[in-house]
Every structure is written in structure tokens, then in C-alpha cells.
Hints:
Oligomer: heterodimer
Largest interface: A-B, 23 and 28 residues
CATH architecture of the largest domain in chain A: Orthogonal Bundle
Number of strands of chain B: 10
CATH topology of the domain at 5-96 and 172-260 in chain B: Rossmann fold
CATH topology of the largest domain in chain A: MetI-like fold
CATH class of the largest domain in chain A: Mainly Alpha
Strand order of the largest sheet of chain B: 6-7-8-3-9-10
Amino acid sequence: MTIAKSRTLIPQKTRRAITAIVVSVILWEIGSRSLSWLGVAIPGISAVPPPSAVANAFLGVVVEKSYWYSWYLSTLRVLGGFLVAMLLGIPLGIMLAINRTFNGIVFPVFEVLRPIPPLAWVPLAIIFWPTQGLSIGFVTFLGAFFTIVINVLDGARSIDGRFYSAAQSMGASRWQVFRRVILPATIPSITVGAVVGMGITWEVVVAAEMISGSGSSMGRAGGGLGFFIWSSYLGGSYEQIIVGMISIGVAGYLCSSAVRMLSEASTPWLKRR
Amino acid sequence: MKPNQFEKSGSTELASPIVGGEIVAQDVSKSYEVDGEQRLVIHGCSLTVERGKLTVMIGPSGCGKSTLIRLLAGFEKPSSGAVLVNGKEVRRPNGDCLVVFQETALFDWMTTRDNVFFGPRVRGTFDKAMLNKANALLAYVGLEQFQGKYPTQLSGGMQRRAELARAMINNPDVMVLDEPFRGLDAMTKKLMQEYYARIFAETRRTTLFITTDIDEAIFLADRILIMTNMPMRVRASINVTLPRPRRLIDVFDSDAGNAIKMQALTILHEEAMKSFSQGSAAATDFMNAYSMRVDRTQSAGNR
């Protein structure tokens, strides 16, 4: 079995993924050109630019610095918001879980703020923060923050009581219990919150850039990927809209993969055997 | 896993007898408020876990044994009465009395090795000597090869041995084992019982061993405490004077062993009838234990 497997250059999983993507692109191309090729316009898809045109548009923007500047800006906003959300969210979640008084005071406020969609904060964020970048970063932060706090809170609260008893009876101080039991036992929940939170930050950053964004000194294409899509729409370049969308898909995928890899590295005891 | 392994590793400290402590519970009661009503879990319970002896406590599940353990180890305070370890009243958990919990309380996120190191580490007493002791202990419980593994990668029997090692490194005066072999398959359970009996024989550390299994109780015990159903107290105390080292086969081939079993089961049956008439679910446990006696007597009669 192993010998047979090692003979194929590309693993089966990758082959399947590549096949699926290629077939999707072909179907898309056929769908987009259905009117001229088949004589019938397939509703919806026939209005979408075909992948060949999108590829062409991509070759056009890929050489532009402003396109990559948009990547940079969006990624910066996502990572900035995400990291701040982790830095504030993890301690807050743990505090809410272990301190009853703190929970009694803070949790009601938290629960009122939590259902407010991050995008509802956009107008306030623009008023509140001095620069556009900070406003968008703040909204991005909110997207990840609540998810992370809720996950950490649940994780820290569901730590088995036997772990505390065992640690205490072996002479662990409160700080030691925190450092060696609560914190590591919460890591799996932190990683779940991080993976979900990372997904949300990309959703939020794009919408926030569409609502409040503007081009940078690099021009209209350099205002973040969300703004890139929006300005392409306003400029009537439908191929570029798709380029922007796929760019976000790829960027989100890369970020989520990175978070997932870090998660797995930080929870070696959950490794699947 | 051989008994003489310590001599080989140059550390005789582990296998040499340990002067253990003593637990005394004086007229201990504990009640909890459940739905606005006071519920008495333990009532007027007095007992002694003698120095250097293996005392086995047996009673139906849900009778309050685990609550009593929490009191003995200082996790909770009794509503009235007192718990003394070595003559000192227990007020909070301390290293004197260590509990090995039901199922497993190994820290999932630490390797076996780090689990065993936990006690010395958190107390800041981890040094070269302790490292040697830890390594010797890991070898003693047969986990030398598995010290880098996480608890979920160990078998049930290995987990229990890791947990014993984690407790033993702290050199507690008293160890409390709360149904430590519950949930193991029959074969592993028997192996662990024999294995544990040998550890005890070598160290003779004062131990309170909790179980619901009468055979396990007789095999291990110097003394068996039979507990009543809730509210719990000591119903009877039986001395088990079978010579050590014991073997599982010997215990139940000997008249002395069977006499003790009959005696214990008779008392357990009385408790069963009492709790049965009160409609307690725990009665089933007693009845099951009792039916074992009936089966054995019948099969003996048929022979």
C-alpha cells in the first residue's frame, strides 16, 4: 500500500481539489458564454464575466503597485484588529469565567454590546477614531473580539473540577493553577475562537472598506481589497470585481490556514493519532 | 516493573517503607442545600485510617463517599465534626493527604513526564534529586518509554499508573484513592490490583482506598469499612488478616477470604434491603453485590 501510494507524485486529496477547481472554472466559462456558445442565456451566470476575462484583468492589475497595496492594507487591518482582539479577548474571557464579581458587573454590558453587528459600529467608529484606517481596524477588531471572548469564557468555565482539586492538593498556588491549569486547558477554546474570529475579520474588513473606504495616495485601487471591489463596481469594471473577490478568498484562506497551523502547534496533545 | 528495580537504579528511597500519617474523622457531618432544603449527605461519621495500613471503604455509589473524600482532603469543610491528619485539623488542601481521583485527573495538556513533575514544580522543589526520583518513579510504574506521550495516548492502565506516580512523587503522608480502577476492563483491572498491592506492600504508605467492588476490597484491604447509604456513616469494620503478598486466586480459594466475603455481603445485603424499602436507586448496587454471593453459593452447592 505505502509503496503504491508513494509512486503517485501528487496526493489524492490534492488531485481531487485541483480537479474540482478546474471543473468549476470550466463550468463558469461555459455559463458566462452561454448566450454566444449555446444560444441560450443561463440566468445569473451569463451576466458574470467569464474566467478568461477575469484572468486577463488580473494580469492587468497584478503589475500595479496599488493592487498589492490594497492587499497590504486589508491584511494589516485584519491582523491588527485580530491581534488586539486576542490580546484583550483572552484575558477578558478568562476573567469572566473565573471571577464571579467581575462576571456579574461586566457580563451584562458585554451581552448587550455583543449582538450589535460590527458594521453597525461603522458610523460611530468614523466619528470616534481620527483616521479612516483606525476606524476600519476598530470595526474589524469588534468582529473577532466577541467571538473570541465567548469561546474563551466557555472553555475556561468548562474546565473539569478534578483538575483544580488535583492541582490544589499537589500544592499549587492560585497563580500556579492559573498558569498551569486554567491557561493551557483554555488553549483549545482559544484556538477555536481564533479560527472563527479570523474568518469574521475578513468579512468585516471588506464590508467596512466598502462603506467607509477611500483610495489611498496609490489611487483608487489602493484602498484595501473591499474598496478595490467597490471602486471597480463604480467604475464599471466587472472583471476587476471578480479579481477582488477571489483575492479576498485567497487572503482569507491563507490567514485561516496560518491560524489553524498555529493552533495545531499550540495544542500538541490534541494531535490525531 | 520488577520490585528490585530501585536497587538497580540506585535509588532505594522509593521502595523503602514510608512512615505514613493517620486520618481521623470525628463525628463528621456534611449537608448541602438542595432546592432550598438541607440535604444530609454524611451523618455522624467517625473513622480512623490507621498508619501504614490499607483501609478500604466500600459502599454503594452515590452514598456520599466522594463527599467524604473532599472533606478528608480539605477541599471542603464539614458542617460539624472534625477531620485530623496526623492530629492536625485539616482546613485546606495540603500535601499531607493526596487524592487520586475517579476516572483520570491527569492534565491532558502535559506529557506524562510533566504530569509527574507537576507537584515538585508548583511547590518550587524541583531539583536534580527530584529529577532522579521522578525518573525512578516513571521506571517503577513502567512508563519510562511513554514519558513523552500525552495522557490521551496512554491506555487506561497506563493512565492509572501515571496518576499513581504523580501522587507518589509528592511523598504524601496519606493517599486517598477514589475508585482508581473503575472503568478499566476486567483484565487490566486485575493486573492493576495485583500491581497496586505490590506497590503498597513495598511502601506501606497509609492509604484509604474507595471501591464498590467487594472482591477488590478483600484482596487489597487490611481493614474494610462498610458504609451505609446516605446519610453516610460507618456501618461495620472488618479486619482482613490474610497474609501478604496475596494473589487474587489465593484470596478466593481460601476459607478465610470467603468467610470475610460472606460477612461483608451479609451486612451489605441488610443495607440493600433498607435502602430498597426507601426506594433508593443505590439499592440496586447492593442487590447486585448480594446476587454475586447467591450465585457463588449455588454453584458451590451444585458441585
